[in-house]
Amino acid sequence: MSAGSVAVVVTEDIGVPSWDLYELSIPCTVFGKPQSDLADPWYDLRLCGTGTPHADDPPADTGLALRTRYGLDDLAGADTVIVPSVPDACVEEGKPLPEALIAALREAYDAGARMVSLCTGAFALAEAGLLDGRRATAHWMHTAQLAARYPKVRVDDSVLYVDDGDVLTSAGLTAGLDLCLHLVRRDLGAHVANQLARRMVVPAHRPGGQAQFIELSVPTTDDEGLGPVLDWARAHLDRPLTVEDLARRAAMSPRTFYRRLQAATGTTPLQWLLNQRLGRARVLLESTDLPVERIGELSGLGTANNLRHHFLRQIGVSPGDYRRAFPQSRAESSSASSIQRRRAGEKS
Q1: Mean pLDDT score of the chain, rounded to an integer?
Q2: C-alpha count within 13 angstroms, C-beta hemisphere, residue 330
Q3: Residue 243 has pLDDT above 60, yes or no
Q4: Residue 162 pairs with which residues in a beta bridge?
Q5: Structural domains of the chain, with CATH
Q6: What gap in Å lies between CA 51 and CA 67, rounded to an integer?
Q7: Using only C-alpha atoms, what is the Rg of the chain?
Q8: Spatial separation of the C-alpha atoms in residues 11 and 70, rounded to whole Å
Q9: Cβ contacts of residue 227 below 8 Å, gap of 6+?
């Protein structure tokens, strides 16, 4: 697998509002900082502006100007093209996007580039016709406008991101980070993506089918008392854990434990356990060649049929299809295990 080059569109001539800098900074952070100990070479990042390079004055409504070394002509030579966002005026007021940008996006796609949008960047891909007939998403506050303006796009407002192979779209803000880490997983394997996520102090993997908006997704209280028991549960997912088991370990009644966990996480104890078990199963599918039956046991999901049921229902694909997306990670894991076994034999 190879990292390749990533071209990020900077809409400098039509304005980059300060609140859109978050989406712009995500690909810069994920793909722009070399991580040679994880993969060498790392990605080659290029910021490609839509306007005149080195503009002297920032647009009046943004308060800043971004100067880029590359222009739209450089999109066509990239392996991956990312549109982080488009200005609010293009979304809310229907202000046209630059024709040169739309033409450059089409040219990059025709040249074989993988096309990616974060948040409202989907409007640019849709304007270029790259989302016609495809399932796509954007920030849930703008998906109705996206669907109304581009009726050929199958807009899904409920997911974090959509991977349609050569065209990928994400919801807004942190969902863009989820998608960028997903790209790293595709390109360089689960181990590299997990290590990068750890350095960024973010979850290693949230599946794209996870809901964008969940009531009480942000804890309403800093309930540090739950931390030890939840850590213990993660370390013992292969056991038949119940709410009563966790409540007893937390020195609470089941009713109190249920209430406090739901207040802190926005989900029920049983759903929290299911999410953790699915996460463990994903890691094992990505990084090992263990049989599905064994993965069901280690993750606490039980039989292979039960594992398949929850995978299809929660993630939208079968365990086998999910595993086939990460062949490099399993090969590296198998190779590392072989080396460890050989070294252990030499020492004995």
Answers
A1: 83
A2: 15
A3: yes
A4: 169
A5: 5-200 (3.40.50.880), 224-328 (1.10.10.60)
A6: 9
A7: 22
A8: 12
A9: none
**CB contact at 8 A, 115 and 141:** no
- Count CB-CB contacts under 10 A for residue 188: 22
Question: What whole-number distance in Å separates Cα of residue 114 and Cα of residue 78?
Answer: 8
Residues 196-210 have pLDDT tens digits of 988 887 766 665 655
Gap between the Cα atoms of 203 and 299, Å rounded: 18
The whole-angstrom separation of Cα 285 and Cα 278 is 10
160 and 171 Cβ atoms separated by less than 8 Å? yes
| Residue 112, H or E segment | none
Q: Quick one: tokens of 19?
A: 């609140």
Per-residue pLDDT tens for 47-83? 998 875 444 554 555 445 677 889 999 999 999 999 9
152: Cα within 13 Å, side-chain hemisphere:
10
Between CA 330 and CA 293 the distance in angstroms is 17
Element spanning 125, H or E: helix 122-127
**CA-CA distance, 33 to 267, in Å (whole number)?**
35
Cis peptide before 41 (omega within 30 of 0): yes
Per-residue tokens: 344: 């252990």
Predicted TM-score (pTM) of the model is: 0.64
Cβ 85 vs Cβ 118: under 8 Å = yes
Q: What is the DSSP string of 137-188?
A: ---TTTHHHHHHH-TTSEE-TTBSEEE-SSEEEE-STHHHHHHHHHHHHHHH
pLDDT in tens, 272-304: 899 899 989 988 988 888 999 999 999 999 999
Residue 84 is encoded by which pair of tokens? 């982080």
The count of other CB atoms within 10 Å of the CB of residue 107 is 16
